[in-house]
C-alpha cells in the first residue's frame, strides 16, 4: 500500500526526532533506527502516515492542525473503539498507543499496526474480474453485518454513543456541521435538511455499533483473497441505527452516472459483477438473521446523501483554510452540478488546483513588487520591459507544466477546464502572462495553430508558444462602433502579388509600444461581404528594438504608430493607435506579400472557417510585415485591456 502514499505535505510536517524519542520509550522503535515517514493520499479528515522502521511498519493517525469544528477529529475515540473491536476478534488494525501530549508532534495521535493488503480507491474495481467484484462486495456486506451483530455490552464501550434517537441526532448534527462550514447558500441542502427532519422514522429504537463511514475504500482486503483484513477510519463511529451504515454503502448505486466527481463517489450503475441493491440487502439481512423488507430505506438513503454533502463541505472548508488532510480536497467541489452542467474533467480539476497553489505560493506575493517596478519606471523606457520577477515566474510555471494551458491540443484540457483556470488567473493583472495565457496572444496563437502554414507556424507560432515574442490585436476604429465586427472600415484588397491594406486602428490591445511585440493582427474588410484578419510581422526589428532611424524608415513605408492611449491612468501594458498609410492618416494604404496569407484565397472568399460575418462569408487571415515606432509624447502607461477578444 506504499503506492497510496506521498511525501509528507508541508502543512502536516512534524518533528521526526521527537516522535522517534517518544516511540523508543512507548513502542519497539530504537533511537538508532532510521524512520521513513510518508503520508497517505487518502484520509480527508484526520492526516494518516505510514511509518517504516527496519524491523516493522506502523500507521500513525493524528488530529489535523488549525481551527477545527468542536467535537470533530476525536482520535481518542477512534483508538478506544478499535481497541475494543480488536479484543473480540473483529478485523481492525491492532491499536498500539494513544498520545495526548501536543509537544510530541503538535496534536494528539494514535499508533496502530500496518496491515498489508489491497485497498480499492475506485469503487468500480477496474482490473478486477466480474466474479471477484461480486466476491469482494459480498465480503464487505458480511463484515458490515458482523459489526452490527456485535454485543455492545461485551465491548466495554459504555457512554460511547447516546443510544436511541440516532436519526434525529444525525440530521441535527450534520445540519449544524454543514451550516457552520458552508461558504455559500445551497437551497437544495436546506430543503433536504427540512425534509429529513419532517420524515424521521417512527421506530428509531434499534441500537448497535455503527461505523458512520462504511465504504469499500475503507476496507483492506487480503492480497489474493476476497476477504476483509481490516476496517479503517472509525472517526464517525457511534451507537445507533444500523440501517444508516447500510444505506451509506448502497448510496453509489443511486449516484447519477454523469456525476463521477472522484472515484470513491462514482456511480456503480451498469458495472458487471457488482451485486444489485436487492442482492446486497439480501446478503446483509441473511447474515444478520433479520427480514429483508427494510422500512423507510429511502429516508436512510436521503440521510446518507445529506451526510455526504456535509462531509464534502467540511473538507472543502478545510481546503480553503489550508489545513485539508488530503491533496485532492478541492475535487469534492466542482461548481454548479445541476443536470451535470459545468463539470470539469479530472485533469482539469488537477491542473486548476496546481494553478491555485502556484498563484498562492508565487504569483500573489509578487504583486507588490511588480506594482512598485512599474510605478518607479513610469516615465522611463524601462517601463516597456517586464520586471525580473515576472520572467522568473514564467520559468517556474513552464517547469511546473503550467504553460500554454489555453490550447487544448497542447494542454489536454477542455475549453471549460480552461475557463476555470482563466477565472483564477484573473485575480492578478499579470498572472496570465506568467502562464503564457495572456490575451491577445492566446487568440492569435490559436489562429496560427489551426490555419497557419508550416512556415508561418515556425516563424510566428513557435516563438509565441515559447514566450519569446508577443503579438497584438488591432480591431477598434475611431469612427465606428467596433464591438460589432461588421462595422469595420479598414480594408484589404489584392494588388498583383500583394494585398493592399487601408485603415486606422486605435485602442489596440497587446501593442505595449515595446520591444517584444513582433506580430500584429488587423481586422479588415476583404470585400463588402467578407471580413479579414490581417497579421503584420515585425520580423526586421531586433530583440533590443533596433535604432529609431530604422524604425522610422519602415514607418514611412506604410505603417505608423500614434501615441499610446492611457486607460484610467493604469499601469502595465499599452493600448496604441495605428494608421496604415504612406504619409499621414488621410492617405491609408500599404502592401503585404501573398505568402503571408493564412488559408487559401479565391476571388470572393477565404477558407477560414472559425469566424463568419452576418452574411455567412468566411473570415480570411493574412500576414503583413510591419513595424513599430515609439512616441516621445507618451504621458503614462496604460492598462492591458482587450476590448474585443
Automatic annotation (TrEMBL):
Residue stretches making up the Acyl-CoA oxidase/dehydrogenase middle domain: 472-512
The UniProt record lists the keyword Flavoprotein: yes
The protein's required cofactors: FAD
Keyword terms: FAD, Flavoprotein
InterPro entries (UniProt xref): ACAD10-like, ACAD10_11_N, Acyl-CoA_Oxase/DH_mid-dom, Acyl-CoA_Oxase/DH_mid-dom_sf, AcylCoA_DH/ox_N, AcylCoA_DH/ox_N_sf, AcylCoA_DH/oxidase_NM_dom_sf, Aminoglycoside_PTrfase
SUPFAM superfamilies: Acyl-CoA dehydrogenase NM domain-like, Protein kinase-like (PK-like)
Domain Acyl-CoA dehydrogenase/oxidase N-terminal per the UniProt entry, residue ranges: 349-468
Superkingdom of origin organism: Eukaryota
Residues annotated as domain Aminoglycoside phosphotransferase: 36-256
Molecular function via GO: flavin adenine dinucleotide binding; oxidoreductase activity, acting on the CH-CH group of donors
CDD domains for this protein: ACAD10_11_N-like
A Pfam family this chain is assigned to: Acyl-CoA_dh_M
Gene3D superfamilies registered for this protein in UniProt: 3.90.1200.10, Acyl-CoA dehydrogenase/oxidase, N-terminal domain, Butyryl-CoA Dehydrogenase, subunit A, domain 2, Phosphorylase Kinase, domain 1
The protein, known as: Aminoglycoside phosphotransferase domain-containing protein
Amino acid at each position: 500500500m506504499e503506492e497510496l502514499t506521498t511525501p509528507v505535505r508541508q502543512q502536516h510536517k512534524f518533528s521526526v526526532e521527537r516522535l522517534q524519542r517518544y516511540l523508543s520509550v512507548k513502542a519497539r522503535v530504537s533511537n538508532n533506527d532510521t524512520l521513513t515517514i510518508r503520508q497517505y493520499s487518502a484520509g480527508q479528515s484526520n492526516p494518516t502516515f505510514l511509518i517504516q522502521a527496519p524491523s516493522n511498519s506502523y500507521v500513525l493517525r493524528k488530529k489535523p492542525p488549525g481551527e477545527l469544528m468542536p467535537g470533530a477529529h476525536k482520535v481518542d475515540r477512534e483508538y478506544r473503539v478499535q481497541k475494543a473491536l480488536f479484543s473480540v476478534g473483529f478485523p481492525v488494525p491492532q491499536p498500539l498507543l494513544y498520545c495526548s501530549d501536543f509537544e510530541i508532534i503538535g496534536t494528539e495521535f494514535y499508533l496502530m499496526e500496518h496491515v498489508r493488503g489491497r485497498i480499492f480507491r475506485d469503487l468500480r474495481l477496474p482490473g478486477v474480474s466480474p466474479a471477484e467484484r461480486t466476491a469482494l462486495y459480498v465480503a464487505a456486506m458480511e463484515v458490515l453485518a458482523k459489526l452490527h451483530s456485535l454485543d455492545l455490552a461485551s465491548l466495554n464501550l459504555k457512554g460511547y454513543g447516546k443510544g436511541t434517537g440516532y436519526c434525529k441526532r444525525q440530521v441535527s448534527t450534520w445540519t449544524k456541521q454543514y451550516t457552520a462550514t458552508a461558504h455559500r447558500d445551497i437551497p437544495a441542502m436546506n430543503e433536504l435538511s427540512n425534509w429529513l427532519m419532517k420524515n424521521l422514522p417512527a421506530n428509531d429504537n434499534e441500537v448497535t455499533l455503527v461505523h458512520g463511514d462504511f465504504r469499500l475504500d475503507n476496507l483492506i482486503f487480503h492480497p489474493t483473497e476476497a476477504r476483509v483484513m481490516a476496517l479503517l477510519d472509525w472517526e464517525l463511529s457511534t451507537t445507533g441505527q444500523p440501517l444508516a451504515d447500510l444505506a451509506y454503502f448502497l448510496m453509489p448505486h443511486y449516484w447519477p452516472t454523469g456525476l463521477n466527481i472522484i472515484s470513491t463517489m462514482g456511480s456503480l450503475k451498469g458495472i458487471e459483477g457488482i451485486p444489485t441493491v436487492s442482492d446486497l440487502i439480501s446478503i446483509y439481512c441473511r447474515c444478520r438473521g433479520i427480514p429483508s423488507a427494510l422500512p423507510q430505506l429511502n429516508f436512510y438513503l436521503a440521510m446518507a446523501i445529506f451526510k455526504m454533502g456535509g462531509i464534502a463541505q467540511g473538507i472543502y472548508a478545510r481546503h480553503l483554510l489550508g489545513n485539508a488532510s488530503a491533496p485532492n480536497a478541492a475535487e469534492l467541489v466542482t461548481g454548479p452540478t445541476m443536470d451535470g452542467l459545468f463539470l470539469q474533467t479530472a485533469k482539469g480539476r488537477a491542473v486548476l488546483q496546481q494553478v491555485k497553489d502556484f498563484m498562492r505560493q508565487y504569483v500573489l506575493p509578487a504583486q507588490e513588487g511588480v506594482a512598485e517596478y512599474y510605478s518607479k519606471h513610469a516615465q522611463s523606457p524601462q517601463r516597456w520591459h517586464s520586471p525580473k520577477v515576472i520572467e522568473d515566474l514564467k520559468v517556474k510555471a513552464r517547469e511546473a507544466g503550467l504553460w500554454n494551458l489555453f490550447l487544448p491540443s497542447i494542454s489536454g484540457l477542455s475549453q471549460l477546464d480552461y475557463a476555470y483556470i482563466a477565472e483564477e488567473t484573473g485575480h492578478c493583472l499579470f498572472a496570465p502572462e506568467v502562464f503564457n495565457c495572456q490575451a491577445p496572444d492566446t487568440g492569435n496563437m490559436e489562429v496560427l495553430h489551426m490555419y497557419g502554414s508550416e512556415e508561418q507556424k515556425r516563424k510566428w507560432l513557435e516563438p509565441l508558444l515559447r514566450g519569446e515574442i508577443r503579438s497584438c490585436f488591432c480591431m477598434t476604429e475611431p469612427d465606428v462602433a467596433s464591438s460589432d465586427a461588421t462595422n469595420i472600415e479598414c480594408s484589404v484588397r489584392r494588388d498583383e502579388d500583394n494585398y493592399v491594406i487601408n485603415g486606422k486602428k486605435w485602442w489596440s490591445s497587446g501593442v505595449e509600444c515595446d520591444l517584444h511585440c513582433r506580430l500584429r493582427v488587423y481586422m479588415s474588410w476583404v470585400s463588402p461581404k467578407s471580413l479579414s484578419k490581417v497579421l503584420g510581422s515585425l520580423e526586421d526589428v531586433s530583440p533590443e528594438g533596433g535604432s529609431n532611424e530604422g524604425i522610422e524608415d519602415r514607418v514611412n513605408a506604410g505603417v505608423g504608430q500614434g501615441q499610446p492611449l492611457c486607460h484610467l491612468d493604469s499601469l502595465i501594458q499599452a493600448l496604441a493607435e495605428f494608421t496604415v498609410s504612406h504619409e499621414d492618416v488621410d492617405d491609408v494604404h500599404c502592401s503585404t506579400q501573398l505568402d503571408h496569407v493564412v488559408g487559401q484565397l479565391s476571388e470572393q472568399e477565404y477558407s477560414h472557417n472559425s469566424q463568419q460575418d452576418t452574411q455567412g462569408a468566411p473570415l480570411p487571415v493574412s500576414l503583413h510585415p510591419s513595424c513599430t515606432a515609439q512616441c516621445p509624447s507618451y504621458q503614462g502607461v496604460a492598462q492591458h485591456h482587450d476590448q474585443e477578444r
